[in-house]
Specification:
Elements: H1 4-10, E1 13-17, H2 22-26, H3 29-37, E2 41-42, H4 46-55, H5 60-67, H6 74-99, E3 106-110, H7 119-133, E4 138-143, H8 146-157, E5 162-167, H9 170-189, E6 199-204, H10 206-219, H11 230-245, H12 248-256, E7 263-267, H13 280-283, E8 290-294, H14 296-305, H15 316-328, H16 333-359
Helix pairs in contact: 4-16, 6-16, 7-8, 8-9, 9-11, 11-15
């Protein structure tokens, strides 16, 4: 039987791994995933690096040497460890990057969550990290906060490839797309090479169902039948927005000047509710020009029993009805998105604090 992950590739969707550690790099696991499953990218965040540095023995000697240097801050020690991993992953995926002329083969590194509401500092950090990693297949991760939107536009305008993170609503999707369009237009108008700029917009899913389901359970009655459907509906409607925004009519002039469409990326795709399928956010959202970044367990589950069929453009009317039904229950999906983004930022900030405690002298 054909590996369903390879079938996804044939359907136009790319799978990225939502994990990175020296164990994956040193024991050959990541290389095998790229070779056997055609994993086309890697994402990281403070939570992933905290777990990696805490659990893997491959960091300890270098971390101790870094701690013995009193001139380094805890954040500099963390960056030294993380950047080495990012560079190694970029090098591993470089053949994919070259073979696809820069469409695939990317690795994401997040700016400090402490900068989420400071556009100027985010731009400075993003450009510094880009220069330090010095790999063409690096994506700088920036959250879709109000300040983040300003930073996204400026980074893209300066030729920096960006992975926009912590998106939870259609409002976020639309605002991020416009920030990218402004930035890539400025980059091209300034004489930049648009083909060297890549951007993905990461829409987080499982957390949406977790929160909306709680509201539906509080409402009770017929509302209970709506549980477990909101995140998939959100993604399907977001993809319809993507098709409109980056259609030949709307985006054609920029595309002719070398600009790439900003790809939709499904994030937070590990199912949190055990009552739902462990591949819910993979099987339901398969379509061209999209990316699904999955944790190890979800990747293994889909490889074992996933069904790879084009599903992303099916059930659009049902998705719209889901949103209409939620609105009738006074569940505001844009407000849900803002609440989840604030919660996500707090979680990443806490992971970052734990990281710095881990690397403190």
């Amino acid at each position: 039987m054909m590996n369903p992950l390879l079938r996804l590739h044939a359907l136009g969707q790319r799978i990225w791994l939502d994990n990175l550690s020296r164990t994956l790099l040193h024991d050959g696991t990541l290389k095998k995933l790229v070779t056997d499953d055609r994993i086309a990218g890697v994402t990281s965040n403070p939570t992933i690096f905290f777990k990696a540095i805490s659990d893997s023995p491959h960091y300890q000697d270098e971390l101790q040497r870094l701690k013995n240097d009193p001139t380094l801050s805890a954040e500099q020690r963390y960056e030294t460890l993380a950047i080495a991993d990012i560079q190694a992953a970029c090098d591993l995926l470089q053949p994919v990057f070259k073979a696809t002329a820069g469409d695939d083969g990317y690795v994401s590194l997040e700016v400090s969550p402490a900068l989420a509401h400071d556009a100027t500092a985010t731009v400075a950090a993003g450009l510094r990290l880009k220069g330090t990693v010095a790999r063409g297949n690096l994506l700088i991760k920036v959250p879709a906060t109000a300040a983040g939107l300003t930073a996204i536009e400026e980074l893209v305008a300066q030729g920096c490839s960006v992975n926009v993170t912590l998106m939870f609503s259609l409002r976020h999707v639309r605002e991020v797309a416009q920030a990218y369009l402004r930035g890539i237009t400025r980059h091209i108008d300034a004489g930049g090479d648009a083909r060297k700029v890549k951007s993905v917009a990461s829409l987080f899913l499982s957390r949406v169902d977790t929160l909306v389901d709680k509201r539906l359970e509080a409402a009770g009655g017929d509302a209970l039948a709506l549980r477990g459907r909101s995140a998939v509906a959100l993604a399907k409607l977001a993809y319809q927005d993507y098709l409109t925004t980056f259609s030949d009519t709307a985006f054609g002039a920029l595309a002719k000047r070398g600009a790439r469409a900003q790809a939709m990326l499904w994030a937070s795709t590990g199912t949190k509710n055990p009552a739902y399928s462990d591949v819910l956010y993979v099987e339901s959202l398969i379509g061209p020009q999209t990316i699904n970044t999955v944790p190890d367990a979800t990747l293994a589950a889909f490889r074992e029993n996933g069904r790879a069929e084009a599903t992303l453009e099916a059930g659009i009317d049902a998705a719209r009805e889901q949103f209409a039904a939620l609105q009738r229950l006074d569940i505001d999906m844009d407000a849900i998105g803002q609440e989840l983004q604030a919660e996500g930022l707090k979680q990443f900030e806490e992971s970052f604090r734990q990281l710095l405690a881990l690397t403190a002298a």
